[in-house]
Amino acid sequence: MYKTVIILALTFSAFSYSQIKIGAANSADNVTNTSVLLEFGTYNDKGIILPYVETIPTATAASQGGTIIFDVSSNAEYKVKVKNENAGWKDLSVQSGYSAAVETVVKPSQAMPLADLTNAKAIIGSETSTADGVLVLESPSKAMVLPIVTNLSNIKNPSPGMMAFLQGATSAGHRLVVFNGQKWAFWRP
Length: 189
Description:
Structural class: alpha/beta
Low-confidence stretches: 1-17
Order of helices and strands: HEEEEEEEHEEEEEEE
Distance between the termini: 39 Å
Oligomer: single chain
Mean pLDDT: 77
Number of helices: 2
């Protein structure tokens, strides 16, 4: 019930304003940049967790360029991947994050497996979308701002598939960071 309320609130906010800030400390901390579709608060100790995907989407609208997933389709290769519009899936993890401990987090045993609901998704920025995802950001002119951290040690227990933006002391130190369940991988913009 709690998750449903949050999704409904996000969906209503998305249709009403098309700009959302998650984790804003107060109303003065709202999104003010008109180029931002979704932004996260600056708590400096959190990231976003990508969906654990057991079946890689094929080359359809379900896997548009810019789609980011935590691929757990193979027990030997748990990796964060991004869809390049023309070149397939690109590995952002560099090495696999698979381990038995990580598997218990991303594939917990269930007495009754949960089935995906065909049309269960929240769309921000548009009323409809052909993209298949849990959270779809759809805008020709706005972007998402990742959670920003200044020190990875602030994230005490990173979850497999976590992603954030590491802000260094200078722009040369800025990095996109992804956690594969075992190690962080660093990507310079």
